[in-house]
UniProtKB/TrEMBL annotation:
Pfam families: TIM-barrel_EndoS. This is Endo-beta-N-acetylglucosaminidase EndoS/F2-like TIM-barrel domain-containing protein. Belongs to the glycosyl hydrolase 18 family. The keyword Signal applies. GO terms for molecular function: hydrolase activity, acting on glycosyl bonds. The keyword Hydrolase applies. Transmembrane segments: none annotated. Keywords: Glycosidase, Hydrolase, Signal. Residues 41-89 form the Endo-beta-N-acetylglucosaminidase EndoS/F2-like TIM-barrel domain. Residues 1-23 form the signal peptide.
Amino acid sequence: MKKKSFLIGLVLLLCLSLIPVLPAEKTAQAEEQVINKNFMVYYRAWRDKEMKGVNTSLPDENWLRMTDIPYGINIVNVFSYVPPGQEKLAEPFFKN
C-alpha cells in the first residue's frame, strides 16, 4: 500500500511539474509588441519658445520647446508656417 501511494504521489508530482508556471512565449511576445509600438504627436512650431510672435496673435508667451517632447515619442509631425515678413522672427527656431 505504501509503495502504491508513493508511486501515485510521484506520478502526480511529475504531472504537475510539466505544467508551466508562466507561459514564457506569451510574455516575450507581449514585450515585443510594446517595444515595436510607435507613438506620434504633432507639434505646432509657431507655439515654440523660439518663435516669438510668429504666426500668432495670442498674448501669452510660448513656453514649450522641441526638446521638451517626452521620452517615448518616436515620431513628431512638425507643422510650421511662417507668414511673409516674419522670417527674421522665426530664424532662431530653424537654427536650433
